Amino acid sequence: MVPVPLSRLQPSRTEEIESWPYLDEGVLLKTRSRKVCMTCHWMRHHAGVNCIPLLTCQLHQGLIAHGEHLTSRCQGWTDDMVRQRGWAPEVA
């Protein structure tokens, strides 16, 4: 399997990110490790209405409530590609 570059990851849903549902306890698990949404390969920041940041999970196509990204993760948590391969692997 060939990894997809981060810049080419596009949401598969057709609706606007602002209309994505918030992820709940059914998806997010509380954790006390470094394996939280903030350190996950799938987490993204987007500028929402009035430039209010939206935290999203590209894997689950959902929004993450502010603060939950620091204390929660899902079963699909994956280490960020930068950590896996080093900075700017495309240059190598």
Write the layout of secondary structure elements.
Elements: E1 29-30, E2 43-47, E3 53-57, E4 62-64, H1 68-71, E5 72-73, H2 81-85
Antiparallel strand pairs: 1-5, 2-3, 3-4
Description:
- The protein is mainly β.
- It has a domain of 63 residues.
- Helices cover 10% and strands 18% of the residues.
- It is built from 2 helices and 5 strands.
- A 3-stranded antiparallel β-sheet has the order 2-3-4, with no helix packed on it. It has a two-stranded antiparallel ribbon with strand order 1-5.
- The longest helix is centred in the last third of the chain and has 5 residues.
- It starts with 28 loop residues before the first strand and ends in a 7-residue tail after the last helix.
- The N terminus is likely disordered.
Key descriptive features of the protein:
92 residues, mainly beta, 2 helices, 5 strands, globular
- Between the first and last Cα atoms, what is the distance in angstroms? 19 Å
Largest sheet geometry: 3 strands, antiparallel
Average residue-wise pLDDT: 82
Q: Which percent range describes the beta-strand content? A: 15-25%
Summarize the structure.
With 92 residues, the protein is mainly beta.
